[in-house]
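Schema walkthrough. Field components (list of strings):
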Amino acid sequence: DTGVSQDPRHKITKRGQNVTFRCDPISEHNRLYWYRQTLGQGPEFLTYFQNEAQLEKSRLLSDRFSAERPKGSFSTLEIQRTEQGDSAMYLCASSPQGAVHEQYFGPGTRLTVT
Amino acid sequence: KQEVTQIPAALSVPEGENLVLNCSFTDSAIYNLQWFRQDPGKGLTSLLLIQSSQREQTSGRLNASLDKSSGRSTLYIAASQPGDSATYLCAVRRDSSYKLIFGSGTRLLVRP
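Field assembly_structure (string):
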């Protein structure tokens, strides 16, 4: 079991560019989550998938943000027309089926928009 | 609306001390509560998860308690070590949602 992996680990982009992040959950975890964390704050929920279905989205997920999990395995998070306010750590987590729903987090992708 | 608060925001203690980190939440209709550790610039490591029906969980030198009715959880760290230095975050999951709602964390420094 290799844990949740995220790619890239760091991304620097210019304002107005599009970026895409990838998350690979723990094998056989059917639930996948995206969070965003800014300096000195706790993570904030963005969206949640159960298998390939996106079941919950935060108001933080503006129309510039889109997430997919096409085959119920890995997920991508795309930000279009990036703004300086998008600079943050983007965290992915997964949890297995069952009643406990403990979430396991990846190392995160740090985005810097210049 | 569920809000999670962690006090203190920062804590500095000498090595060997026992310490308590506090977490409070405003809505008692929670499904579970998780405590995490985060090292600078890194992801989150799950430390303990307490289901809403449980009162406490233990793992090694860590003990977490939950009092749903008062909206409080504590994380007790025994015999602290410099390697325990990190930010500790608590997060609650409500009955009606799968998302976690986080506090802002307690930044812990254990001095040798």
